């Protein structure tokens, strides 16, 4: 079983490497949204610094949303998903492997880029580390919840906008805790509670979301 | 048959029996809702004393509070029907969940609307990012998402199952969202507003609130069941009982037979 999961993980990572374009588009989107931020609210460093945590986090959420419609759609269209569903391995674990690959492709670049972008918005020192750490802990939850929405809207009319309507209310806690941690770090407050709660969200979503996703995929495959 | 008898409500799972049950129940529910609403509004507007702080503006709470409660209750009920639907493949449970959702959305929207109307004289603004307001708004989006997903699928059965799954995922998330929003609000101490709880509610206020709450319950049951009845009729397509049910309804109205006839024929052809 472990071999099957590794195979899927490597396959998906390989697909990402051969189609770098997709990842680069999402990363470029992330950067552009953050670049638009000062243009929208003005270049005053004080205001920018105040809004930076929310801005970076919102951009990360939107970038994840944008990347989701490719997550299952290609495999669904060419029948791969159906093949995966009939393998003896539990679909939930296969989904987990796919999501891990997706996070490496989408979440990780955003986490690595975030200190640079945070710096341009006026964050300094340890706050940049907090920003990256909060994204590192929060983006897997975004992927897990987002994949649930992507699986539910598979093969459905008006997928993209509908997916946003389904997912965005559900990711509210992640957004609150993630940007909250960074805001707290700016003012030198205690950031640990935020990280504990983010970790709790991840601990909840990690076992539960793949079950919901596999159930949703089975509905779509029916 | 024996199992049918051991669980008496089981027979209402069959669409024709459900159809009849709804026909029998709905007039009573409507009547009860109307009587309770009139009584509740009378007590609320003429018997209950004005609040010592808010004057008469608090009286909107007789609509606002029941609506907010109903919104949350209906989401819970919807999620329970969704579980029944997915776990036991009971189609009628999906029909019920789908039929309750618009009422739930309406109640949540009503709670938001009346809440902002109450906020204008009390807080001096129609909208603040208060924890309760924000989580109610999120609840409204959960209802809308459920309805949108249900409607988007080309196959109604499939859409129903996906929507049920979404309702369950949402129900797991609702407490997390609620607490995170509450926490977010207490940490961002920009605008500090707390809903002014009346220190001791006058008994007449309380009874008006209770009457209105039951009126809302009965209204939601009446509307939900009627919607479910129509939905079940639609889904049963060309079944004999459905044809008779539609024809029966139409022939009961004077001069309506012909439209009913053409409608059935249109459906066949």
Structural commentary:
The complex is a heterodimer of chains A (about 220) and B (about 270). With about 220 residues, chain A is mainly α. Chain A has helices at about 1-20, 20-40, 45-70, 75, 80-85, 90-120, 125-150, 160-170, 170-185, 190-220. By secondary structure, chain B is an all-alpha fold. In chain B, helix 2 (about 15-45) runs antiparallel to helix 7, helix 3 (about 60-90) runs parallel beside helix 7 and helix 5 (about 130-150) packs antiparallel against helix 6 (about 155-185). The longest helix of chain B has about 35 residues, at about 15-45. Chain B is globular and about 60 Å long. The two termini of chain B are about 35 Å apart. In chain B, about 40% of the residues are buried. Classes of the chains: A mainly alpha (about 220), B mainly alpha (about 270). The interface of A and B includes residues 148, 177 and 212 of A.
- What is the general shape of chain B? globular
Note the overall shape of chain A.
elongated
Question: What structural category arises from helix and sheet content of chain B?
Answer: mainly alpha
Classify the helix fraction of chain A into a percent range. Answer: over 70%
Low-pLDDT residue intervals, each spanning 5 or more residues of chain B:
189-194, 253-269
Measured on Cα atoms, how large is the radius of gyration of chain A? 18 Å
Strand runs of chain B, count: 0
| Number of DSSP helical runs of chain B | 9
H and E string of chain A: HHHHHHHHHH
What is the number of helical segments of chain A per DSSP (H or I, 4+ residues)? 10
Q: Separation of termini of chain B? A: 37 Å
Rg of Cα set of chain B: 22 Å
Strand count of chain A: 0
On the 0-100 scale, what is the average pLDDT of chain A?
91
